[in-house]
Amino acid sequence: MIALRRFSVPLPLVLIFAMALGLAAMLRAQIEGGERGVPPIDSSSSFEVSGIEVDTYAANADAARLAGWREAQRKGWDALWGRMHGGEKGPSLSDSALDGIVAGVVVEDEQIGPRRYIARLGILFDRARAGAILGNSGSLLRSAPMLLIPVEWSGGVPQAFETRTEWQKAWARFRTGNSPVDYVRPTGTGPDSLILTPSQTWRPGRNWWRVLIDGYGAADVLIPQVEIERQWPGGPVIGRFTAFHGPDRQPIGGFVLRVDSADGLPKLMDEGVKRMDALFTRALQAGLLTPDPSLIVEPAVPEDEADDLEAMPEDTAAIESPTLAGSSVFNVQYDTPDVTSVSAGEAALRSIPGVSAANTGSLALGGVSVMRVTYGGDLAGLAAALQARGWQVQQGPNTLRIRRGAAPAAAPSGAAAAK
């Protein structure tokens, strides 16, 4: 006779297993559930001139509207040329020539009558075609790539990407083509709601910040924050805006805006984004948006820990730091004061043995650009190859920051040596 033994699971293990399943379900719901994520407008391929007022007459409504759009194109071109050339008056272009460089018309507000057209318009100029006429469009100051985490306080609760907020929508609508700040705007989908949280903006530790910065291809972080105060349901809304920079939340500036009703909240946010971008732009011009070096370079290892590393057996060290076979892709940050420095930097990286590709993924003329380099080896090998060619190299997680080394002092001439 075979004795049957009943298999029993301890109650604590059952509870732990149930809690693990519940936690997994909650995380899945947090990532996939609810309305979340606003894809930002891709405005990198156009220049924008907004707020153009037109008032035209014609034989009918369609002709009046066409005349208004033509007038807006001419005014927009004059404004764009003056912005690129310090207020100088630019060359006059025919309507047909303007049609060839205008990428679109943004209707901000319009009133159409039987023979009259009154509107406030925005004109989008194709960056490639208009840039060929503007000439110096590529010499504008640009910042390093900045990860943007918009935080909205409403009802005493902070939100970033956990839900779809009006503040996030306004930043997604904002056209960044004219801004000298290189914004990296997450969409808010997938893991963004889990890792880009309001609490993350208060963490001073650099380890997790380095992972985020590297994962999003940025060099630093910007935190535009707004506190929404509603006077009463449906009544006036007050927005208190504050701009922060870096993982230490260095304050840049702030302002207060107000609308008469809750229906004007989107307009309040749009105006807040424009003024916030102006704050960041002034900070960039004043040299306050320099990337934090601690986000690129890991801190030095204390001497006692360094001694422990030196005493580690060779086989253990090989397990802890394996050498990957094949090619790897690394980020290389380098200075790009002008257009020629971009091609020169890429050519310098491609000339290194083992580098199969070197292409600039994030361009910041006048600042620090990021190049994606495919190298048949590890990051330390690439750093050593660059140092051998005279580059100053700072190594971070999957990232190198390179600068041209200082030129050696000239040797004294024979006559000078004799003296």
Jot down its keywords.
single chain; 419 residues; alpha/beta; seven-stranded mixed beta sheet; five-stranded mixed beta sheet; 13 helices; 15 strands; 35% helix; 27% strand; disordered N terminus; disordered C terminus
Topology, please?
Layout: H1 11-32, E1 46-57, H2 61-84, H3 95-101, E2 102-112, E3 116-126, H4 127-134, E4 146-148, E5 151-154, E6 157-159, H5 166-173, E7 183-184, H6 192-195, H7 206-215, E8 220-230, E9 237-245, E10 250-259, H8 265-285, H9 303-310, H10 314-320, E11 328-336, H11 339-350, E12 355-362, E13 367-375, H12 379-388, E14 391-396, E15 399-404, H13 414-418
Parallel strand pairs: 4-7, 4-8, 5-8, 11-15
Antiparallel strand pairs: 1-3, 2-3, 5-6, 8-9, 9-10, 11-13, 12-13, 14-15
Helix pairs in contact: 5-8
